[in-house]
Design a protein that fits this description.
Length: 193
Amino acid sequence: MRDVLTTTAGDGRRITLRPLRAEDAPRVQEACSDPEAVRWLGGEIINERYSLEHAHGFIERALCGVGNGSHMSWAIAATTTDELLGHISLIGSGGELTDTAALGYWAHPSARGTGVTTAAAAAVVDEALTPTSDGGSGLRRLTLRVAVGNLASQRVAEAAGFMRTGRTRQSDHLVDGTFTDEFTYDVLATDPR
């Protein structure tokens, strides 16, 4: 899988998907301690007390996973400034990134609503599902789970070509201690994109 991808966001800005770097840690910390991220992704680690140390650990784990082939991870960055705008990853099923992978993403608060995450998701879907003979990664299927109330994430998934396939009840434990349903999505290499 290519470690650098480029695309254009909905607001017209060029973005680069590249490996995370240690200097991204302050922006990771800001994103992962933001109330909206905490609301949907929060738990023991992602919360209002998310520290710079947590951010460095996140970056190290992401790079380790890429190194061992279990997943792919990209910083979503502004091409002109290299500023981190978000993160997107594919985690391989069964610990290998060879057939099916789960997509995950988040956006820095300053990048929300700009189309950056949608553009990044579409680029990753295209890279992952394009056959190896055509220069892609040749995966067969991508999956995604989104909390029912997380409308922004649902819009990203659907714009990137994912189809809603079902609903799992009370499957997502939110940081406030409640449980919510999740929509399940997938996209196949054979689906039109």
